[in-house]
Write a structure and sequence with these properties.
Blueprint: H1 2-33, H2 37-64, H3 68-76, H4 83-98
Helix pairs in contact: 1-2, 1-4
Length: 108
Amino acid sequence: MSAALTRYRLIAYVVGVVLIALMVVGMPLKYLFDQPVVVETIGPAHGFLYMIYLVAVFDLARRANWSLGRILAIMLAGTVPFVSFYAERVVHRWVQASRPEPRTVTTG
């Protein structure tokens, strides 16, 4: 599950950064200055990356036995600016909490 978590964390970060660039740079340029080039470039990239994000969420959710509601909430996190960063931290905590505690061996 560690590799699935790492893949999820990486793509969540990338999707979050691309979405913020799209919203903070691309949308104002398109609608305020009639310069759609950033939206035309970053928009499809975000769509493609978001599909990879969905696959990563599904893979991690399958391994962690998440409920459908949890899966959907995390999948939607990639559509709202800044929320994918928060969701990534929450998911990391969930996975860490579900891992068994390491045993300590004492010699006497």
